[in-house]
Records
---
Amino acid sequence: MWFGMVSLFPEVFKALSDYGVTGRAVDRGVIELDYFNPRDFALDEQHTVDDKPYGGGPGMLMKVQPMRDAINAARQVRELSRVVYLSPCGQRLDQEELKKLAEFDDLILVSGRYEGVDERLLKQEVDLEVSIGDYVISGGELAAMVLVDGLTRLLPGVVGSEESVERASFFHGLLDYPQYTRPAEIKEYAEAGDVPPVLLSGNHLEIARWRHKQALGKTYERRPDLLTKYDLDEKEKKLLEEYLEERSLN
Ligand code: ADE
């Protein structure tokens, strides 16, 4: 998957290209990041990329021309690219939206700085606005990185086994079940309880059942809003009841 990153700070994307899952995906050519800095397209000697908002008010906006030329330069590399603008005013990102976006071969991700961009540029150049949550961060770059990371994980062959993507939080709309690793006993964490014996039993069917039950219970307790979207089948209803009974006994 190809990403045209339109940003005044291309260096920050090193965090994607140099580390971890996304870094390996770059090395293996599964994803490709190309950079288009609006400052390189500014026409004056100072390379100005911002200007005052009409009507006054605090802060500056990004100028249209350098931004438009940077987007168009990205379009010249991949003509059919969708243009995504990262903004708290956008559609909220979730796993479903990620799956839809992962179907595209190319995306141009536009990161804003300052107080944002001219509305006309959004209307004419941008296909989709995406928000990573109901809070404001200082620019679109971190949001674009969240998007690239989430998409990369969905591409075939990126995460070790297909299964671990599927097991991850939010797959099937449930939160992840609790996990434990060695040692089986940690004296200082006695209050947190023991490793659930079923996990040490080697009985894979029972382990899968326990994990499913915990995922349902945790989602019910922490994110009941997710369960309303989730169609519990009879087996899951029973698992959740069991979870709640066990909880009330403890
Ligand atoms: N830019 C600033 N805040 C943002 C957010 N919440 N999502 C996407 N882009 C942003």
Note: The pocket of adenine is lined by residues 86-88, 131-133, 135-137, 140, 143 (CB under 6 Å).
---
Amino acid sequence: MYCVKQMREDLYWVGGTDRRLALFENMYPIPRGVSYNSYLVMDEQTVLLDTVDRAVSDIFIENIEHVLGGRELNYLIVNHMEPDHCAVIGELALRHPELKIVGNAKTLTMIRQFYDFEVDSRAVTVKEGDTLSTGRHTFTFVMAPMVHWPEVMVTYDATDKILYSADAFGTFGAMSGNLYADEVNFDRDWMDDARRYYTNIVGKYGPQVQMLLKKAAGLDISMICPLHGPIWRTDIAKFIEKYDRWSSYRPEETAVLIAYGSVYGHTENAANILAARLADLGIQNIAMYDASATHPSVILSEAFRCSHLVFASSTYNNGIFTAMETLLTDLKAHNLQNRKYALIQNGSWAPASGKLMGEMIASFKGFEQIGETVTLKSSVKDEQRQALNALADQIAASVQETQAV
Ligand code: FEO
């Protein structure tokens, strides 16, 4: 049975929610599920904005056919060709011979790559600033390459001042009836997922997001309709500010993150001693993660949030402990920049992880080490306790300096 949400007299959410999928992109755990948003505009000519993932295709088709009520589907605007949004294009083409497919040249190339149906006779190719009038509504197309794939564009409905923003401004998490960000406690229940979604999915492409934000600044926006998660109609500027911060690689908060990779607990012990001293020095809300126990996507998201990062790792196979190496590789891949960091290494006979972590981090833009790398040889002794306390003093001083700016 259909499950649609009417948003305006002629605008409907026709997407779906998925709480069965364990790993988004077969990579990111999504314990709160995910939503695939799609929007149907019942203008003089009907317009669908994007489709959904195959997982919710049945309900999606029911939703569309219910809202259409026997009318033709005239246009499908394809803002993004990743399969979590494009999986039902082929079926729609079969069901609606009249359907025109609107996309840019790269979109249409990707449709041909993913599908075998004849595209050219249906294609409406658009470029930056082109418009499509469908009766009451006029849609303007704004290119947003690499937010998150090269073909991505966003669509602005100048009539109702709505930005259909593709992956931008989306979040993990399945919606629970409430469609709008102002109907939920977004800061409490959604912000962590929004940050984890942004940083992991789009985080690498900060400059491209900055370009999109500049274009969006020129639009009068009353509502943002992303492809995942709640829709924004209030506090839009506040969420845009988050995006500005994340995409310019500025920390969201002056805060300390400690991530450790520990085989038998001695490196973890060093991390705890450091954290305890930091707390004694007045540092609050210290975030600590065992890289073996926490998915790297969570720690990466936290690293985008925090200003000061501590990496503590055992030496393993003469290298960095595997979970820590994965985390650092992930931070590099997502282009994290402009952080203060400190290192702790451990090795019972040949400690090497500190030097190797330092070499990896040397390629991170704007990273600045605090203090010397603290070295453990098996377990924390008095000498290491003193070194950890001294490192904590330096980190705390840096935190206080940052807070004062
Ligand atoms: Fe939600 Fe880049 O797809």
Note: The pocket of MU-OXO-diiron is lined by residues 80, 82, 84-85, 148-149, 167, 227-228 (CB under 6 Å).
